[in-house]
């Protein structure tokens, strides 16, 4: 029996698919099955998949009409025979030792349930974007802790295609749920179920950045961002909040706008007291903009940090006045 099942959804990925498949087949750890699902591609993806399947009997091919990523992941998980599930994307590349290093860590740390890795970003984007996104993806995790605060506040800190996890915990959590940010939802549900998430401090994946990526596509009109904010609200509050909930948003820009829209929809009787912004004054969305220095004088129940550039400054200021992450604030972007 194979101890690992690598699952890779494919949708119109012919441009990068060969490199992704070959990086899995070239692993130093050999005992795995490789489930590749063609999710209704209209390009040459299925022909490329079948070409490799003829060469390597570890490949299991599923091909059908398009049903979306979450359906595809759950379908592959149900088919998988391995004790461990490995996520792989059709546009990324594994280093040859990836599976070996992850499975060895699992054998030595029986208490870990979900294991990610650091990544090396590459692709057709500027060097500045590569550095920025690599820094986001490569925040370190603490072993023996839930890492919930890191996952909520830094969102993209755990690269989904770097994950190896026990199939038993996916069965326990009943797989992925139908969110655009299905990975964030799974991590937070795992933590709530007292499961342990950790990340190796080694770059075992080349994580491709490009304009056709799922993250880019899902976030048109901020839909992906709004979905993630909703998931965080569900986790942090669990409907335990007063009707006269008053909040402020740190960041008077697109992130603040998306945050207000989701919070007002989720908490229909909530009230946005205003926005905090270091560089703006006046009003935003018909609410007053306050300076960071005035935050102590505002009456509120909670703060949502909705600025990426000013995130660390906002966290520092709120902690300085005695507020606690998650209890009193969290980052929505």
UniProtKB/TrEMBL annotation:
Record domain Glycosyltransferase 2-like: where: 5-141
Enzyme class, UniProt record, top EC level: transferase
Pfam families: Glycos_transf_2 (PF00535)
A GO molecular-function annotation: undecaprenyl-phosphate 4-deoxy-4-formamido-L-arabinose transferase activity
Coiled-coil regions listed: none
EC number: 2.4.2.53
InterPro entries: Glyco_trans_2-like (IPR001173), Nucleotide-diphossugar_trans (IPR029044)
Keyword terms: Glycosyltransferase, Transferase
Name this polypeptide is given: Undecaprenyl-phosphate 4-deoxy-4-formamido-L-arabinose transferase
